Task: inverse folding
């Protein structure tokens, strides 16, 4: 589903502040895999996600998504496959619009320009039933502006919105970093459920080793722009939480 071949990325090349952010990344992620990426600050995790979304084009290497060479495609042309949830709950939603209008926009995200989706009863029922999964009572606040909700509520809705438009790949870039423990737990459990229900291919970046232990069927550790561990399937299931702590000792 996602294939990265010999990806290199150097920022500020030739200057005193040159940074080799990625140095020869080779990574194949199969359809339906849920990959968790851990690594110290500055190890290249976000740069790797930016390569996949196309918000940064690689200095060297090849990127394929769904069998198509997308190496030179900018992010807006890759959005047909990819939805991304950021750390900041404010970045995924429009504050002034209602919950329902945000969902309408989300459903249009990958559709051709000019297409319109009316808010009819069928659409409202679909949105209500999706939101009810959260158990936050937000299905009764469809006409409330998004800006009046808490960070946790917005992040949970951002996740739901990401599956309104048939995206295939969900990228979660520290989605719970700004949330209290209870909201973080709801957001992570919702993400896990959506990934399973919609058979999504997913990547989660997290500094929470407990989440890295609980979620996903493959775990990758990055250091200094490289993948230094890649553990999948039964081997991941057999890891102990203490093993992960030892990786960072
Ligand atoms: N646009 C940029 N310009 C210059 N340097 C950058 C840029 N983006 C990232 N870097 C540098 O590249 C390196 C990798 O950064 P990246 O954000 O990918 O790390 P990370 O593993 O996601 O870190 P964190 O856990 O702190 O979010 C860092 O040294 C960072 O300062």
Result:
């Amino acid at each position: 589903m996602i294939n990265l071949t010999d990806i290199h990325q150097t920022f500020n090349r030739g200057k005193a502040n040159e940074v080799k952010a990625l140095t020869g990344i080779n990574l194949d992620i199969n359809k339906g895999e849920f990959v968790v990426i851990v690594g110290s600050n500055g190890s290249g995790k976000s740069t790797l996600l930016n390569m996949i979304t196309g918000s940064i084009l690689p200095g060297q290497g090849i990127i394929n998504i769904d069998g198509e060479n997308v190496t030179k495609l900018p992010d807006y042309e890759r959005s047909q496959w990819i939805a991304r949830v950021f750390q900041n709950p404010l970045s995924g939603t429009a504050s002034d619009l209602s919950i329902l209008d945000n969902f309408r926009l989300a459903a249009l995200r990958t559709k051709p320009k000019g297409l319109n989706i009316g808010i009819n009863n069928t659409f409202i029922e679909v949105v209500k039933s999706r939101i009810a999964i959260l158990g936050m009572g937000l299905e009764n606040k469809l006409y409330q502006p998004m800006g009046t909700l808490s960070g946790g509520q917005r992040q949970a809705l951002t996740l739901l919105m990401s599956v309104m438009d048939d995206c295939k790949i969900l990228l979660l870039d520290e989605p719970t970093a700004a949330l209290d423990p209870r909201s973080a737990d709801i957001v992570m459990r919702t993400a896990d459920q959506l990934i399973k229900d919609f058979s999504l291919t997913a990547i989660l970046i997290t500094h929470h080793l407990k989440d890295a232990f609980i979620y996903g069927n493959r775990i990758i550790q990055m250091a200094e722009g490289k993948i230094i561990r890649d553990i999948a399937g039964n081997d991941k299931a057999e890891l102990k939480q203490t093993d992960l702590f030892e990786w960072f000792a």
